[in-house]
Input
Amino acid sequence: MTEFRCRRHPTEDRLPLVRPPFKGDLGERIHVEICADCWKEWLTHQTVLMNHYGLDPRQRKARDFLYEQLRAVLFDEGEPASVDTSKQGSIDW
Ligand SMILES: [Zn+2]
Output
């Protein structure tokens, strides 16, 4: 069995995802660097973001925003959006 290290838990043994969560380079990267728990955490966070910002994932801009947030949260690249659950969020397109 090959050893798997999640980039967010470098000192712990974590279970990897069975397969990339979606197609493309980013999906592959998540598969290689992110554990199943972190991915689950992101999915929960993604739902919070979609509800907060009223995102429709069928829209290109909404998907771009989510990918950007995914990178910020899972890979520490960029600014994570703040989620103030007491008010409705908005995105400057
Ligand atoms: Zn992890």
Q: What stands out?
A: Residues 36-53 form the longest helix (18 residues). Residues 36-75 form one domain. The helical segments are 25-33, 36-53, 60-75. The mean pLDDT is 90.
